[in-house]
Amino acid sequence: MTRKILTALLLTGSLMVAACNTVEGAGKDVQSAGEAVENAAN
After folding, report:
1. Is residue 41 exposed (0-12), middle (13-18) or buried (19+ Cβ within 10 Å)?
2. pLDDT, average across residues 17-36
3. 15 by DSSP, 3-state: which?
4. To the nearest 5 percent, what fractions of the chain are helix, strand and coil?
5. H helix or E strand, kind and range, residue 1
6. Model-level pTM greater than 0.70?
7. CA 41 to CA 27: how far, in whole Å?
8. What is the pLDDT of residues 6-23, one digit of tens each?
């Protein structure tokens, strides 16, 4: 029982870390796209 709970917690933690990295990467992509548009406007 304890092993199943520990496994579930580790899996959940891993998914949360992966999700944060994905959101951070998407934010950087949007930022770079915005900068490209801004530079094109200048």
Report:
1. exposed
2. 79
3. helix
4. 95, 0, 5
5. none
6. no
7. 21
8. 898 888 888 777 777 777
